[in-house]
Design a protein that fits this description.
The chain is mostly helical. The chain contains three helices and no strands. The longest helix is centred in the C-terminal third of the chain and has 22 residues, at 51-72.
Length: 85
Amino acid sequence: MLVPDPKVIRELLTRYASLRIAQAEQATPTAARELEDVSYTLCVTMGTSSIHDAIAKADALLLTKGRTTAATAEPEDESGLPLAV
């Protein structure tokens, strides 16, 4: 199974959230169409037919990838900067 790139998923989720906010503030046909497009893209990317399921799967994927990245990251000192070994 192909796993979507977390960076792409973050961009899609950010775009989705921004468009939802824009539509809530002032509904426009352009923003509605863009929201429909990004919703569809999220669903296809995450392999779901519901935007709510797509967001849940995207969140779970990002959490899993975040844990994997943190576990393999270089050790850090007190300042939060990676230590050169």
